[in-house]
Amino acid sequence: MASSSFFCFSRIPACLSLTTLKRRSLSSRCSLFVQPPDVAQLAESARISLTSNEIEEFGPKIKQVIDWFGQLQAANLESIEPALRADTGGSDNTRADEPEIFGNREAMIAAVPSYSEPFIKVPKVLNKE
């Protein structure tokens, strides 16, 4: 699988808890394979300009990165317990997901160019719908 030009993406819904993730095998086979992206199209999406020489140069490098991810995907992780970080020592030391009130809200609102309660308006970033 390491020499393949395909990359397997695991789709993990954001609503899954750590407990649910621990029960599921993240090393199971994926059903979705994607070919490496077209470098010119990728550059356009990233809003960078590349010369034809750069496009030729980056093509194999992007394929190599995708192949590395394929190698990671193929690794057997059945015996490894999921963790948020490598140095957790088995403890879950994340903070509770609770809303916090920002102490200086007025200063933040005054610093933004356009504000319409309760939203901060920003310029459109992508041309594509």
TrEMBL record:
It holds the Pfam family GatC. This is Glutamyl-tRNA(Gln) amidotransferase subunit C, chloroplastic/mitochondrial. Belongs to the GatC family. Allows the formation of correctly charged Gln-tRNA(Gln) through the transamidation of misacylated Glu-tRNA(Gln) in chloroplasts and mitochondria. The reaction takes place in the presence of glutamine and ATP through an activated gamma-phospho-Glu-tRNA(Gln). The keyword Glycoprotein does not apply. GO terms for biological process: glutaminyl-tRNAGln biosynthesis via transamidation; mitochondrial translation; regulation of translational fidelity. It catalyses: L-glutamyl-tRNA(Gln) + L-glutamine + ATP + H2O = L-glutaminyl-tRNA(Gln) + L-glutamate + ADP + phosphate + H(+). It is found in: Mitochondrion; Plastid, Chloroplast. Its main location: mitochondrion. One of its GO terms (cellular component) is glutamyl-tRNA(Gln) amidotransferase complex. InterPro entries: Asp/Glu-ADT_sf_sub_c, GatC. GO terms for molecular function: ATP binding; glutaminyl-tRNA synthase (glutamine-hydrolyzing) activity.
